[in-house]
Amino acid sequence: MGPIRTCAAAFLAVASAACAGQATAAAPAESAAPRADSDVPPEGAPVPEAAGARPRAAADVGAAAPESADPAWAPPILHSLAVFTVTRSVEAVLWPDPFADFRPERWGYHYGEAFTKPPLFDAAQPAFRWDHDPWPINVFGHGLLGSEIYLRARACRFSAPAAVAFAIAGTHLWEYGYEANGVRPSALDLVYTPLAGALLGELRYATWRAARGIRSAPARVLVRALVDPFGEIERGAGVFDC
Questions:
Q1: Contact 135, 128 (CB under 8 A)
Q2: Is the confidence at residue 29, as pLDDT, over 50?
Q3: Are 178 and 112 within 8 A, CB to CB?
Q4: What SS3 class is residue 120?
């Protein structure tokens, strides 16, 4: 009788476990239909924040969104064209000869020279004066110009290589489009402007991004305005969103 009782007990245990498993598997089907007193909000209703969680402000959402978004082309292109136009106008005021000479024949001559001769590089001149311009203009002026183009592309979600390519294209547009009606394109500027612009521009971009972590709103605005003044003006005025 002992073995029989043992086998019977084992059979009852297995049968009980099987019945319990069927009941568990059937539970989701019973709850498939929503109950009237369900805590699940209707479709389209806002999901409440978890208890104790800080509601995310719109600025927090906007700050994270650009990371996965596609690059925006219009802002850096329009920004660069505006910077080139203003810079070319300043050149005409500061150096009327040759930049304020708007005679068509003079423009035709200079453009013809730009596209039929190699870029100017006078090795007999001192360093950073190989194009006959003062060295502060070449070192600081063109470095800042290149960084402005590069930074605008980076702020508008361009990758670093894409921003370098954008700075190179912008430099060629400046040398052969905007400035070639007054002077011959400079070999130094064609190389140095995008190179220095990428180095300085990436530093400005990293500082601009890091400023998002500053808790003080006035300090955050000040730092971002110092590293990207024109971009902050455009974003603050609602002209562009990057």
A1: yes
A2: no
A3: no
A4: strand
pLDDT for 82-117, tens place per residue?
999 999 999 999 999 999 999 999 999 999 999 999
DSSP annotation of 177 reads I
Cβ neighbours of residue 231 under 8 Å, at least 6 residues apart?
A: 79, 151, 152, 155, 208
Q: Other CB atoms closer than 10 Å to residue 147's CB: what's the count?
A: 25
149 in Cβ contact with 80 (< 8 Å): yes
Residue 168 burial (C-beta neighbours within 10 Å; 0-12, 13-18, 19+): buried
pLDDT digits (tens, 9 = 90+) for 9-24: 444 344 444 434 443 4
Its pTM surpasses 0.85: no
With CA atoms as reference, report the closest residue to 210 among 63, 69, 79. 63
Nearest in space to 144 (alpha carbons), one of 199, 221, 89? 199
- Packing angle between helix 187-210 and helix 142-155, nearest 10 degrees? 50
Could you tell me the two tokens for 132?
């006959």
- The tokens describing 35, both together, are 């109950």
